[in-house]
Design a protein that fits this description.
22 helices; tRNA binding; EC 6.1.1.17; Glutamyl-tRNA Synthetase, domain 3; 9 strands; Arc Repressor Mutant, subunit A; about 10% strand; mainly alpha
Length: about 500
Amino acid sequence: MTVRTRIAPSPTGDPHVGTAYIALFNLCFARKHNGKFVLRIEDTDQTRSTPESEQAILDSLRWLGLDWDEGPDVGGEFGPYRQSERKDIYGQYVDELLAKGLAFKCYRTTEELETLRAERKEAGIHSALKPSDLRLSEEEQHAREAQGMPYVVRMVVPEEAGTCAVNDMLRGTMDLDWSLVDAQILLKSDGMPTYHLANVVDDHLMGITHVIRGEEWINSAPKHQLLYEYFGWDMPVLCHLPLLRNPDKTKLSKRKNPTSILYYKRMGFLAEALLNYLGRMGWSMPDEREKFSLNDMLEQFDISRVSLGGPIFDVAKLKWLNGLWIREDHDDAQLAERLTQWLLNEENLLAVIPHVKQRMETLSDFAPLVSFLASGQLPLSEDSFSPNKLDLETQKKVLQFALWRMEALRAWERDTIFVALKSLADGLSIKMKDFLAPVFIAVSGSTASFSVMDAMVLLGPDMSRARLREAVEVLGGAGKKVLKRYEKEYAELSAEPKVE
């Protein structure tokens, strides 16, 4: 048997360090067993998936040195490697399940589902929705079908009490409660499969032997195991890695830690240092040394050395490790070359010069005008925002709303950013100049910078969003109660979805 592992990210946002973490362990396991490592793009969410996000994933993983043997850009005998290009494949498997009575068409409306869930909650019923809860009478089913109403296809799951035994490489046999397993949607009303169906079908057709993924997928394992049984296929070996966590032990999230790989690249972290740090997340070298290369990890890799304790992603520790790589692995000439590659290259200079040229009288004016572009976290305090016309609490709300809107942007362009911020200013009945003042300070550290929209384009989405997020914290942060109030107001003036 040839070992085949895969990473299957969704191109719906910034490339996440968690994706790189899972990719690293899949790559190491495949290489250790002379197998193949596959990259598959799971773009079943057609409303949120973008080509730009997919390219960012490919570029980020390659920057880290995580190369794949098969994928959408390199091809392979099991392609295509984008789920959107495999849409016709899934239909036959849905039809098979429907014919066997192992799936059913569900015509329930969104309103009906909300009412059903509310009634169950009121009655103190906490089990998942089962087929018997969702099926309509035969007469009503035929009536909705005749009207051409939209439907989804759901899988049949056990309704009786009991547990599902799921085997895991690291955790042994896990007994998971069937009462918590819902009648999962397999095919959406737009004809696209959900992750659960596409994941199982693609892993089978691509010959994936080991599924190494995050522990957040443990609760989905019974559904996947059931689908393998329904189709009569052998299930891959499962291995659920521990989740990356914030220093406060909560699940790693962008609200408490930068999570985008592009952020760390733009900040000036070395690819080899970030990869080294991810390798330390729940795993250790036999000699316990903290600094090691990808080749070192490949030589010593043994997945049984993974610890199930939630590894802490601590940016301060990452900075320390990055410093070791800078000092121990670069002489002066090599460091100069890395600095040039990172920021001080002709392409970046040519992008910046048009914005500062008219403000320059001497060459020495250049560095102060653009220093914020080469900085990481800006030295801001409440006093930085005090001279602005708006009170500090309103400025904090402006920054939080601007952050949410920037997180929702699909195209990171000057005009798009301007329109998004202008619509917020209008919605809040704040003059654009006053609205932009705290954004200027958050992004550039000063209101004397060139256009904040141009500055955000040059900084890129990851660094711009990180600075807005940091500025909110400088102004006292937004706790749960404040966020709830902000979210309600934001939803009322914005058509954009709230950010979770």
